[in-house]
Amino acid sequence: MTDQVAFGLATSNSHPSGTGSFTYEGSFKIVVQNLAFDKQVSAWAQIGAGWTNIFASYSHSLPGNCELWTAPASNSEGQFVAKYTVNGTTYWDNNGGANYKFPQAFDEFVVLAGSSDKAVLGNASLAGSTLSVNVGVQNLAFSKVVGVVFTTNNWATFQTAFGHYNFTMKSGLEVWAVTAPVGPATEVQFAIFYQVSGSEYWDNNFSRNYKVTAITSPEWGGVS
What is the value of pTM for the model shown? Predict the structure, then answer.
């Protein structure tokens, strides 16, 4: 990570509550360099006619002396930028001056990835001896290859599975579906790759890889 702060991912999802209303879930994920212990991380967001800080809380450390911070979303946000104040200095990720636009949910899942994240994990499950992974990618060109590299024995050996186009989200991300037989495995680790226009991009959970078990049934982004 070369910048001090980078917007990583915004998620927005509403679903029936079972009582005639809808339950909403949303979040901002922001990556910062750990420049000091005392710091303040937030999404500086437009809500109605004004702007406000939506403060983030520390989630976990990342390789390269970085940290992941998460802030809640309410589905009322418009434009936003990532904000990081540390050692008396404030750093911004404003999408190259264009700001980010929060993905509004209308009874379905939507996601917005930061400009540096070309591929992101959607959801993953392990059931019936099959690994299933949905991947969101930025549509950088028509011709592309999307897939996962996975292991069932803690990387003693590994295999590759390729995906196919599924649909396009309101945020503009394409969703690609990947399935792979894994036999009797009860735990699978994997990383996502995206090849397009001569470049290759990865989502490897900030260098930690993803892990899904046969008893896990996560929502989008819920894989450990």
Answer: 0.68
